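mind reviewing both lines:
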Amino acid sequence: MNIINTINKLVTQSESSSDGYPRVLYPISQRPSDPKDYSVGLESKMHPLPEYIKQETEGGLVHYKSANKLLGKKAIITGGDSGIGRSVAVMYAMEGADVAIVYLPQEESDAQIVKQLVESYGRKCLCLPLDISIEENCKKIIDMTLNEFGSINILVNNASVSYMQPSIDQVTTVQFDKTMKTNMYGTFFMTRAAVPHLHKGDSIITTISGIPYIGLPGFLDYGMTKAAQLGLTRSLSNQLAPKGIRVNAVAPGPIWTPIQEMGMNEAELAGLLATSTPMGRIGQPAELGPAYVFLACSDGSFITGQTIHINGGMVLNG
């Protein structure tokens, strides 16, 4: 049985789970023959679709419940069109924040879905199709957000790319440059441009990963960038603490988002998703969003320089 048939068989078995979450693997719906040549994937083409707003309970899936925790706040979310970024954008809107979402032009169709969702909760959504790996674009993002909203209270550095390679000699310079410039340069450029406009009570939150804590062998360049983001989080938190600006990170485990489907070939994806967490499944974006709300609102007022690990029970050190 080939890998596609294996994946489809597992999906068929998993779709009957009582809590509504697919359990193991997913069919390949949009991956090109060589994913290393592609930088984006559309959430709208994934099967099954990631869950951006429903969370698991003992009784099944329930919608996220808001409490006006970000009323009147203004947020920028890179990679806000899909995956974790989409969940954060929608939950921020539910909590009363206006959001600017940053994404690549090829992801416009996904971004328009987020715009509709955000506006359905009575909040503004500014769509900014700009590549954060280009320094000038990051300044444009800040300027355009200020022009539209008048202020910035929350920066979520979420946009990243990831390409799995089995050995270091297969990580090309092209791939290495793309990963570094998107994940590390882009995070730095966005943060540097935003900091002068943040004030006491405002927050910076970066999506890192559990990978630099455990050293997964197939993610050398990606792991390097995530370790760099962790270092930025810790150092910048101490730099900005006297100003009352909090800097934290969220480290996801395996989560069903476009970055997974587009960054690996069939066998690589099967291997990743078949590796069970202690909870026996991979996560959904909706299970990440509440952590970003917590870190951005007054509930997290005494938390800075920290990382929240959301990974299905994997115990990590560091």
Observations:
- The CA atoms of residues 233 and 305 lie 6 Å apart.
